[in-house]
Specification:
87 residues; 2 helices; mainly alpha
Length: 87
């Protein structure tokens, strides 16, 4: 009877060890993923800063206020924002 109990105890230890290894690997993967996020966010921030400084979008068009109704017959905007007037 002692041999059966010892065998099942060893099996339980092996099972727990495998589960702990899986959790550790999952945590390492999360750390790797989170480690990449600051660089991606900093890149986005730098693009937003450039846009706010030069007033142009990623496609080079001026960023400004759009007429709330950009239909060509009504505002002539045709879906594109006219540059905001400078003073």
């Amino acid at each position: 009877m002692e041999a059966i109990a010892m065998g099942s105890l060893l099996e339980e230890l092996v099972r727990r060890e495998a589960a702990a290894r899986e959790r550790a690997e999952a945590i390492r993967e999360q750390i790797d993923h989170l480690g990449q996020r600051p660089a991606a966010e900093e890149e986005l921030l730098s693009r937003l800063v450039v846009v706010s400084v030069d007033g142009k979008g990623a496609d080079g068009t001026a960023i400004g206020r759009c007429d709330p109704d950009p239909r060509p017959a009504v505002s002539g905007c045709a879906g594109r924002c006219p540059p905001t007037p400078t003073r």
